[in-house]
Amino acid sequence: KIFSQLNNSIFYSFNDKKVYYLLLIMEKSKLIWLNGEFVNWEDAKVSVMSHTLHYGTGVFEGIRARNCKNGTSIFRLNDHVDRLYNSASAYNLDIPYDKDVITQAIKDSVHLNELTSAYIRPLVFFGEGEMGLLPNNVPVNVSVAAWSWGAYLGDEAGNNGVKVCISKWKRISPESFIPTAKGVGGYMNSTLAKIDAVNNGYDDAIMFGDGDVVAEGSGQNLFLIKNSKITTPPIETGALGGITRRTAIEIASNLGYETIEQNISKEDLLNADELFFTGTATEVIGVVSVDGKDIGTGSPGIITNAIRKNYLEIVNGNNPISENYLTLVK
Fold it and tell me: What's the pTM?
């Protein structure tokens, strides 16, 4: 039963309990780049017999453009394009365009849609062809969409942090999947964890991998701080080699903190001084409780806030090293 709806927020009732959901409503843009040309958003269609729709073999990127003082700029564009191609190669998708074409399509998708800030989603997927697990004689399609999108975990998450649970769902094992690639089908695993967390009143979830060690959030990398030492799970746990994760490590180093990649247990997690998530959509967000237990003071910690502050300065073009990370759209 819906209690009320306001802006992008909605309240539902479950067994007389009010549960808050933040709806990330997508604002449609005018144009989408599809297989080499821009078409109207409504005309960017694919067949229901597309191979990826049936079997999930596709790869994608999530990229942000922001309104910076020198003009709308995209954060770590080349790194995202490189990972798109690496992911495609890992899943045997031969992208029929070179990197310069895709890079320009990403920039144009922001410019032609007249967006000053945007979330950008390149997608590589198998189209319609032979059915069956082996994608013989199946064309590879590429699309790039860009639209206005707010904070993934809510506007107040940056200040207040987020409350998470330990998911009952385990991250897919690296022996069964390719965690270094950003594959479409793997996010079914993430969706299970996210839905379960939100249905139980949490903002998100932390997922464990093989050996009962922490892997990552449902769609974010995780960092732990104890006694001013920073650790993050290695990608061997099933964690994605995130681009924002890499940026957070670089920022921490600039602030005088070394980040160590090592396994994190449940005990380590619950006894942390600080925890924070990173991701392109998430940005840098403090995790303030796990399964109802406060982490540290129950608010984003000093080191988390310092890394977040530096990150936002860099991505918004307000840091001397911003030029090393940003690409102007036009």
Answer: 0.90
